[in-house]
Amino acid sequence: MDAQSQLHATTKLYDAAFKGDVPSLLNLLGEDPLILDRCIIEKSGKYMQSPLHVAANFGHVNFTNKLIEKKPKLVEVVDQIKRSSPLHIACAEGHLQIVKTLLGVNSSICYTHDQDGKTPVHVAAINGQIDVLRALLNVEPQAARERIMGGESVLHLCVKYKQPEALRFLVKTVGDDGELLNFDDAVGNTVLHLAVAAKQPEMVEIILAHSKIKKNAVNKNGLTVVDTHKQSRKDSTKDMDTEIWKLLTCANVLPAKKAMKTTKDRAWLEDHRTSLMVVASLIATMAFQVGINPPGGVWQDTIKDKKGHYAGKSIWSCDHLFDYNNVLVSNTIGLISSLSVILLLISGLPCKRYLISILRITLWISVTATTLTYMFSVSNLTYGDGGIRPALGISIVAWLGLMGSILLGHFLRFIWKLISWLRRQSIMMCYPIRSKNTTKESNLVDNV
């Protein structure tokens, strides 16, 4: 077949694709079996798209099926307009049956990016094609994680192109993927930032309803969604502002300054919680060992006479019961106090600052009891003075001095905070009007 005949056959093929004319397709394939191969090799020639692109665009299901049956490789061909695959075209137009057919041939085309970086999932979301999105994600759920060139996720595109139902479906479908829900774009804006900036209260509500959304995420400009909302107030209607503001305050979304403080507080609490758990566990282990293996050991035999003893009983307790009791009492205090700290930490109670303070004081008691246990043991296990008792006395005095200094420091810190609080209260009483206005202005933002 000469070049002129090939060109004529190709023209007839595209006419058939426009009309969905399956008999014409079969006749052309009978006359020129290589016609579809040329469409692939020549990148669709002057028509810029393959016949499969055309059939997918017009929703010709039977024609599409026959093309794929004859040449499955056509599903991977991208056009010369936007480097879109036939699946991109079918998703944009919402031709569900064609989408399913294309996915059945090669599901990996879900990850094909056009010249703008959009995948078929992105195209379906932009056009609000919910059924198509469902079909795509049923076959390739990870395709929802693909991003366009600007770093925007499929959720960003739903907001950008005002497709609330597509957003609702995607949030519900990919809800277990907390990372995807909190993807940010090139400037650090999450989908929540974008919804607030776009003045879309319905979308803001959809996003905030999900528990894995990081409501106080900060973008690269150091702004949370509250700060973004403040900056964009002047460009919107009052009703929209009020509705979005209510949604943000009900969800306890914070401005950047408070959000960063909250994050630091949580990190501080977690660090202290870990430290307290480690120290309490070590002290509990030591105290337990002293309890079951008392200093001086235990009797290995039983002698039943006036001054007899029993196997397993403490040797020390037979002749120095008072000293042994001192060790036992201090060791028990150390064990119980450290176990109490462990129990409170694993109890599931909210780990607040006041609880950390209580646990810290409890550990002071535990550490002090452990110190006394050691001193009583060393003192009574050493023959004569040998200089050990004066050393122990000095150590006790030094220890008490250290504990006193710590307690004094915390007491002075408490007094300083109390004075500062009283001063703020007196200022508010002296300037009630100003305080009231300030409170009214900042209450919605600063409510924690």
UniProtKB/TrEMBL annotation:
PROSITE patterns: ANK_REP_REGION, ANK_REPEAT. The chain crosses the membrane at residues 274-292, 327-346, 358-376, 396-416. The gene is LOC110706161. The lineage of its organism: Eukaryota, Viridiplantae, Streptophyta, Embryophyta, Tracheophyta. The keyword Repeat applies. It comes from Chenopodium quinoa. Residues 267-378 form the PGG domain. One of its GO terms (cellular component) is plasma membrane. It is found in: Membrane. Signal peptide: none annotated. This is PGG domain-containing protein. InterPro entries: Ankyrin_rpt, Ankyrin_rpt-contain_sf, PGG_dom. ANK repeats lie at residues 82-114, 116-138. It is a multi-pass membrane protein. The keyword Membrane applies. Keywords: ANK repeat, Membrane, Repeat, Transmembrane, Transmembrane helix.
